[in-house]
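Input (structure):
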């Protein structure tokens, strides 16, 4: 890896030996243009619409449970099958290095079309395993949309890349929370428990996904800071990724982050519903708690650019780790208003470090490997979501654990992220001092 002096550009971005792979041309401190922000907006809306099928099944879960005659223990499999499809597709993309060999805007379009077909296939399912297969291919489609979108966005931003990435992630949080808002609508409960509601939701989300699929190819071109394309498959590229120490620290931190984030997102609605809140109030609070993460990603998005990404990730993870333990204890003893406020704070700090991990990946790996590194990061991260999504409801039923201690099982994920980012920050500082000493000696 090329050595370079640890310094700060106009946006305060630390450039060191561990960030010398960023695809930043000589004028990289130049401010993003209006066209760059337009591209950011198009990508954010496209991802939000294209991924509307991801958690749509949770809106009509009561109907699906009755239709397929499954119990509450089997219902999480509908979500886990999506996560599994995402992981399988992301791993396959990483192995063949697809995002570095193909146009990522076209991959996003293809993913959106696959999502449309998989979503409509749910209407034809007659057995539970049919639905699991359809949801699996929904996950496959999501892996063709989200990781490539982060690479496309990176080509539009040299400076303020972390802030731009925050808008992309910020668009996902409200989409993930939307099912809870739908449940809270007056008269919504009866509609979403019927076949009519299921068909309506499927048709609407399919239409939204189709619009999102077309947007990257119809409204966007390639950005002014492209990553070099890789025309051939090279197995050695995977070894290069594995041997990139700083990059692997980011991947490990992202895995811990996802363990915590999706374990929390999937169980916050149940936590509120199990307390003293009514069903509608629980749904509204769950929507607000999850959406707060998207708000935080945008509001705090510039902090990573200004003060260092590793430091920012450490700060967010420390707060969320404390909340992992405090939420259950507060819910067991504190007034419900205090519990709701704490969960909103928790939701606020769960998300804003997420775009910084993706940004670090675009900076720490060789430009021709960035796409592969991004999908590999997403694949490993989403592997870690499946056990936490499945285990949290189980732990909440264990006597002596219940909700009082269940969320504490998410704290090790945040702790792993803190440990990895502290080590990365120390490594960047050490290499910067060494480079400075070398320059002074010369």
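Output (sequence):
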């Amino acid at each position: 890896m090329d050595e370079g002096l640890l310094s700060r550009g106009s946006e305060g971005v630390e450039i060191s030996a561990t960030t010398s792979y960023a695809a930043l041309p000589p004028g990289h401190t130049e401010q993003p243009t209006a066209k760059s922000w337009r591209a950011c907006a198009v990508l954010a809306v496209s991802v939000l619409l294209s991924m509307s099928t991801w958690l749509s099944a949770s809106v009509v879960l009561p109907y699906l449970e009755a239709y397929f005659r499954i119990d509450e223990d089997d219902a999480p499999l509908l979500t886990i099958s999506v996560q599994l499809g995402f992981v399988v597709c992301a791993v396959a993309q990483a192995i063949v290095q697809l995002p570095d060999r193909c146009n990522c805007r076209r991959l996003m379009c293809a993913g959106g079309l696959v999502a449309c077909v998989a979503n409509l296939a749910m209407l034809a399912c007659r057995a539970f395993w049919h639905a699991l297969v359809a949801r699996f291919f929904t996950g496959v489609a999501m892996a063709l949309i989200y990781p490539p979108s982060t690479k496309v966005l990176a080509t539009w931003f040299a400076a303020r890349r972390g802030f731009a990435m925050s808008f992309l992630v910020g668009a996902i949080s409200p989409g993930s929370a939307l099912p809870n808002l739908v449940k809270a609508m007056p008269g919504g409960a009866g509609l979403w428990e019927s076949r009519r509601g299921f068909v309506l939701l499927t048709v609407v989300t399919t239409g939204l996904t189709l619009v999102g699929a077309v947007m990257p190819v119809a409204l966007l071109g390639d950005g002014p800071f492209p990553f070099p394309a890789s025309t051939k498959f090279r197995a050695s590229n995977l070894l290069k990724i594995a041997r990139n120490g700083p990059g692997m620290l980011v991947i490990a931190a992202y895995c811990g982050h996802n363990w915590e984030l999706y374990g929390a997102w999937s169980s916050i609605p149940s936590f509120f519903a199990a307390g003293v809140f009514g069903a509608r109030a629980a749904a509204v609070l769950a929507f607000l708690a999850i959406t707060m993460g998207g708000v935080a990603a945008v509001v705090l998005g510039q902090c990573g650019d200004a003060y260092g990404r590793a430091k920012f990730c450490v700060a967010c993870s420390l707060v969320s780790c404390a909340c992992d333990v405090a939420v259950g204890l507060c819910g067991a003893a504190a007034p419900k208003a205090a519990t709701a406020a704490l969960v909103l704070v928790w939701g606020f700090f769960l998300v804003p470090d997420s775009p910084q991990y993706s940004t670090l990946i675009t900076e720490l790996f060789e430009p021709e490997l960035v796409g592969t590194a991004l999908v590999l990061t997403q694949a490993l991260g989403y592997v870690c979501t499946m056990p936490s999504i499945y285990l949290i409801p189980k732990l909440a039923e264990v006597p002596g654990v219940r909700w009082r201690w269940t969320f504490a099982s998410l704290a090790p994920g945040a702790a792993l992220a803190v440990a990895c980012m502290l080590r990365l920050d120390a490594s960047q500082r050490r290499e910067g001092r060494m480079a400075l000493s070398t320059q002074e000696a010369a």
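Notes: Residues 1-29 have pLDDT under 50 and may be disordered. The longest strand covers residues 7-8.
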